[in-house]
């Protein structure tokens, strides 16, 4: 699988999670919380993966990469805010919508602009990057240290 096919699959999972949260009524508070936890995990891992493996390969498109990095920073701030709000509140729904719209715009722009720029790297390099992404994802998902860091980030944000 090449790099953009791999990342597009992750985008689909993120979109699915956003939709699932949106469709879960406030009365199902625990389900909302579980979905938000899963979204947080997947979104943070996805952004790290792009920052560590995919973006560094796009040296020829560095302005686009800087813009994407700024988007990631913004989505992480919005995510932290959503994580700090009780899921059954009206304010949660409002802030969640801001996070969803902002992230979905980033995903669509990435697919339109950065994935197109990545095609300049050629098929062979795209396949090599795809393998690297899969390998790094397994490390991020399985490593106890990485899990601890993500958990720390989540709980640290909660008290802000
Ligand atoms: Fe991204
Ligand atoms: Fe992405």
Brief descriptors of the model:
160 residues, mainly alpha, 6 helices, 0% strand, globular, binds fe (ii) ion
Protein described:
Helix 1 runs antiparallel to helix 2. The chain has one domain (3-158). It has 160 residues and is mainly α. It is built from six helices and no strands. The model has no long low-confidence stretch (mean pLDDT 92).
Low-pLDDT ranges: none
Helical residue percent band: over 70%
H-E string: HHHHHH
Major pleated sheet? none
Q: What would the average pLDDT be, to the nearest integer?
A: 92
- List bound small molecules: fe (ii) ion
Estimated radius of gyration? 16 Å
Strand content: under 5%
Report the structural category: mainly alpha
Count the beta strands. Answer: 0
* N-end to C-end Cα span: 40 Å
Count of distinct structural domains? 1
Principal-axes shape call: globular
Work out the helix count: 6
What is shown here, in short?
With 160 residues, the chain is mainly α.
Task: Show the helix and strand layout.
Elements: H1 3-22, H2 29-54, H3 62-83, H4 90-118, H5 123-142, H6 144-158
Helix pairs in contact: 1-2, 1-4, 1-5, 2-3, 2-5, 3-4
The site of one fe (ii) ion has 6 residues, from helix 1, helix 2 and helix 4.
């Amino acid at each position: 699988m090449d790099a953009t096919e791999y990342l597009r699959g992750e985008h689909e999972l993120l979109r699915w999670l956003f939709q699932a949260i949106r469709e879960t009524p406030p009365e199902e508070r625990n389900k909302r919380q579980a979905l938000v936890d899963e979204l947080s995990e997947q979104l943070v891992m996805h952004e790290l993966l792009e920052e560590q493996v995919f973006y560094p390969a796009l040296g020829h498109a560095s302005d686009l990469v800087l813009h994407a990095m700024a988007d990631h920073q913004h989505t992480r701030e919005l995510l932290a805010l959503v994580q700090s709000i009780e899921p059954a509140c009206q304010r949660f729904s409002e802030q969640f919508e801001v996070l969803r719209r902002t992230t979905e715009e980033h995903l669509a722009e990435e697919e339109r602009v950065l994935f197109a720029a990545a095609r300049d790297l050629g098929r062979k390099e795209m396949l090599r990057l795809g393998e690297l992404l899969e390998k790094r994802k397994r490390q991020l998902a399985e490593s106890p240290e990485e899990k601890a860091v993500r958990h720390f980030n989540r709980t640290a944000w909660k008290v802000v």
